[in-house]
Amino acid sequence: MLAVKIVQEQGIEVQGVAFETPFFSAGRALEACEAIGLPLSVVDITKEHLVMLKAPRYGYGRNMNPCIDCHILMLKKAGEKMESENADFIFTGEVLGQRPMSQGKQSLHIVAKRSGYQEYIVRPLSAGLLPETKPEIEEKVDRSRLLDIQGRGRKRQMELADRYQLTGYAKPAGGCLLTDPGFAKKLKDLFAHAGAPEIRDIELLKVGRHLRLSDKTKIIAGRKKLENEIIEKLSQDQDVVIQVRDFPGPTVLVPYGCEKEDLQLAAGICVFYSDAPGDVKTLAECRTGDTVSHVDILPAEKEIIRKLLI
Description:
alpha+beta, 2 domains, 10 strands
């Protein structure tokens, strides 16, 4: 928001661009652009992002966040949009040194260079501390009116926000599921066992308890009504959907089906997490497409479940 204001003050027309994948949305960008009256294009980069995510050139952060490679991809896409719309340059709201992995001087250089649009990328909040870019040299933007902010503190940014009367802006936060340790663990498991996961496999990582029964079989057990509904919605004909017949309990999904032995264990886990008595067999309904079968089974043992949880 601050970078936009600084550039707009020079009489330059600005178009916002935000990106989304299953791991992060453009929600905050939409709110920010609405607050300052900026037109925004939202670009879905899921396909390219998943390819990159499996083997990022510059590695991961603390979890599964490939921040440098992700920024490279976003700036590459922004550059393509710049060319298609005959715009003059790209700019971002990055601040030198604000994020240690992706906003150090070397990282900013790598990101710009690898994007293929290095000479067109302006960073208005820290431009005074960075090399001149083509639009600055050509005076399409006045370098003398750009800033020299650096570091993790946000005092100057807060002062600017007051100057521009910006209120209700988002507090500093990643907003990316790839930085979440629990989600990252489930994603690593998915990559280790699925050659080419579908987008819905990624969406399933966001809900329920995930248990790895074998190399070929994983199950997802809903923890509450909303999660059960999401799991049902994301299920496909080749999956097995398990529910306890006579007691409240989870919806358990077995993506892409499983062998009989794993199905028995999945049904036992479904019973364990239900309100069924723990000392008698309970009927679990197993549905695959239009085919329904039943398993009369005791709850799985707690210690076994603990070892299977991802």
